[in-house]
């Protein structure tokens, strides 16, 4: 848009991507958020110093802080978002629910006032009927929320929620409402200007969550029919107009299995998942926010808002998905490569190779978005994008994301906010290989081993002494995967390998560029992108296959003669050496070998023959 930008940053974010992209950058304090990104005095000083005319608050920190918006207005600086009245009204869950009721928006049955103490909480819960949701009035991000199924859980939930609300938001007020069991979380994007115009830009399906935080989002939803979509959109616009809203905002709803929908809350900012809406409507929401803040009227009418195709977003986190569906991981991104070569892929990120994932901020690495003409196409591209995403140095949740998008329930659209705990009741364990996938992995690992062996025999330049080229074209291997050891036969035909596993032959082809972190392999016509993560001194290799990292090792299988001689060996050191020497002398002839064995005598006499084999 030709607007010069100023980036603010903490001292640990000096080399951050947004700092490099901006025209100017100013440090606002040390790493802790209270001393930098939430430090209003420091930020206001930067605004004065740089003579900034407007501030876009993003979707965290001060983006829904009415005091910050008020201070900007007092300095004559434009806040790219709604005015302070709308932020305050929608930021308070109790006030926003009352406003929603007055605007004829469907609301969840519950108590509209502030709950005073645990005894009152129990009385209200009994009146509403269990289960109930106890939540912080000023809350967000899943904090200060508890579900109670009986009186005891209500008392306990009241205590914990008020404590968490006070520590997280400085406000311990709580409300209680009916808990909608097994709902979907569907939200409506709204866009309004300062001239009384407001639009609904269709919905986003956000039901895949862990700890009340979204993991996978898509637009549109598989669940809504046109009538329900229109009703939700019209109620969202009615609420926006009721508070004289101007800017982009999101009205969140819970939707039950009968397509009854209930107002949850309104986010008075840009949402993390806004790209999926941009993909299906063609609107740039950030640009529209800037235009609205400048005072321009909306350029579109409701009839102009389309649903073109399908978009899916995965939140890529530096988290270990095997621990409670994601515990944060910190460290330096030693290798980082976004899958931008995959068609119709968008990556919104603020990091690059060498960036640090610190303890101070949210561990999100990026938002990975794919677009297709239909849902199946968008999901297939997401699968490909996740396989081609290279992240090294920190744990990440790509294995979980990939499992979610290929799960039959998700593919069929059979989802709710309980999807993860229902599908993985014992926690996430990674991808479980089918027999076909196991054979594909074994064939790939065996081919990779042979390709490495062949590469090690190639030399650049002219050697000082002639080196005989290997004419070998077949290998008998043992491949160790999990608790099993599998015999695998490999034969080379040009750049392809014919691999026999479990009595079945598979054809494996690849360019075998072993220097690349990504390896595209075709197995009997099926293309797979694998990543070789690491290889230790013992030959054990970590391979990312179908999103999950597995350990596999391959080695040449011992010859039948070696197996036979090994049968006669024992832990006595010299006899073991004797056997190995005899194996090497096998070419001399069987008579010679038998003579040596007679000379050595039985294994029990090995100590007397020690000198004979001290070469």
TrEMBL record:
MF-aspect GO terms: ATP binding; metal ion binding; propionyl-CoA carboxylase activity
GO CC term (a single one): mitochondrion
Cofactor(s) required for function per UniProt: biotin
Keyword Nucleotide-binding in annotation: yes
GO biological process, one term: lipid metabolic process
Keyword Methyltransferase assigned: no
Keywords for the protein's UniProt record, in alphabetical order: ATP-binding, Biotin, Ligase, Lipid metabolism, Nucleotide-binding
PANTHER family in the record: CARBOXYLASE:PYRUVATE/ACETYL-COA/PROPIONYL-COA CARBOXYLASE (PTHR18866), METHYLCROTONOYL-COA CARBOXYLASE SUBUNIT ALPHA, MITOCHONDRIAL-RELATED (PTHR18866:SF33)
This protein's name: Propionyl-CoA carboxylase subunit alpha
Species lineage: Eukaryota, Metazoa, Chordata, Craniata, Vertebrata
Gene: PCCA
């Amino acid at each position: 848009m030709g607007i010069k930008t100023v980036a603010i940053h903490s001292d640990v974010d000096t080399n951050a991507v947004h700092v490099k992209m901006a025209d100017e950058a100013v440090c606002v304090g040390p790493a802790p958020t209270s001393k930098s990104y939430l430090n209003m005095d420091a930020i206001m000083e930067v605004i004065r110093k740089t003579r900034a005319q407007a501030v876009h608050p993003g979707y965290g920190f001060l983006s829904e802080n009415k005091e910050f918006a008020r201070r900007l207005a007092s300095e004559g600086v434009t806040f790219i978002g709604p005015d302070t009245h709308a932020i305050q009204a929608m930021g308070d869950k109790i006030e926003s629910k009352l406003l929603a009721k007055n605007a004829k928006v469907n609301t969840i049955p519950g108590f509209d006032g502030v709950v005073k103490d645990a005894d009152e909480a129990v009385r209200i819960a009994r009146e509403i009927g269990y289960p109930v949701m106890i939540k912080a009035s000023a809350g967000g991000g899943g904090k200060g929320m508890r579900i109670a199924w009986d009186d005891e859980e209500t008392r306990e939930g009241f205590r914990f929620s008020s404590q968490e609300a006070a520590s997280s938001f400085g406000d311990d007020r709580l409300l209680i409402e009916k808990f909608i069991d097994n709902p979907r979380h569907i939200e409506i994007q709204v866009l309004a200007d300062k001239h009384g115009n407001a639009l609904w830009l269709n919905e986003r399906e956000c039901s895949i969550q862990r700890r009340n935080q979204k993991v996978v989002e898509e637009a549109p939803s598989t669940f809504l029919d046109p009538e329900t979509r229109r009703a939700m959109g019209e109620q969202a616009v009615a609420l926006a107009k009721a508070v004289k809203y101007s800017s982009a905002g999101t009205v969140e709803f819970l939707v039950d299995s009968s397509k009854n929908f209930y107002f949850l809350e309104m986010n008075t900012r840009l949402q993390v998942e806004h790209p999926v809406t941009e993909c299906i409507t063609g609107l740039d929401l950030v640009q529209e926010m800037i235009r609205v803040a400048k005072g321009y009227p909306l350029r579109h009418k409701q009839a102009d808002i389309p649903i073109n195709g399908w978009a899916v977003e995965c939140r890529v986190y530096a988290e270990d998905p095997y621990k409670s569906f994601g515990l944060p991981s910190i460290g330096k991104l030693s290798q980082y490569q976004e899958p931008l070569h995959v068609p119709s892929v968008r990556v919104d990120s603020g990091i690059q190779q060498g960036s640090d994932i610190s303890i101070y901020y949210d561990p999100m690495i990026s938002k990975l978005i794919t677009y297709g003409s239909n849902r199946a196409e968008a999901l297939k591209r997401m699968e490909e994008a996740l396989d081609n995403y290279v992240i090294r140095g920190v744990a990440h949740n790509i294995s979980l994301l990939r499992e979610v998008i290929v799960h039959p329930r998700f593919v069929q659209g059979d989802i709710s906010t309980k999807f993860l705990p229902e599908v993985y009741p014992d926690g996430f364990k990674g991808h479980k290989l089918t027999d076909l996938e196991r054979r594909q992995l074994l064939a790939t690992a065996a081919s990779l081993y042979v390709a490495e062996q062949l590469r090690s025999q190639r030399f650049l330049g002219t050697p000082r002494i002639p080196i005989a080229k290997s004419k070998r074209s077949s290998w008998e291997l043992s491949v160790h995967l999990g608790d099993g050891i599998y015999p695998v036969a490999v034969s080379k035909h040009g750049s392809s390998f014919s691999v026999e596993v479990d009595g079945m032959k598979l054809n494996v082809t690849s360019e075998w560029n072993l220097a690349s972190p990504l390896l595209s392999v075709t197995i009997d016509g099926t293309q797979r992108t694998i990543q070789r993560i690491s290889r230790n001194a013992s030959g054990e290799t970590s391979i990312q296959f179908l999103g999950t990292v597995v350990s596999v090792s391959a080695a040449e299988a011992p010859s039948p003669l070696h197996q036979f001689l090994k049968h006669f060996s024992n832990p006595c050191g010299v006899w073991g050496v004797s056997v190995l020497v005899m194996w090497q002398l096998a070419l001399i002839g069987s008579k010679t070998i038998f003579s040596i064995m007679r000379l050595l005598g039985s294994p029990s006499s090995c100590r007397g023959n020690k000198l004979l084999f001290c070469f």
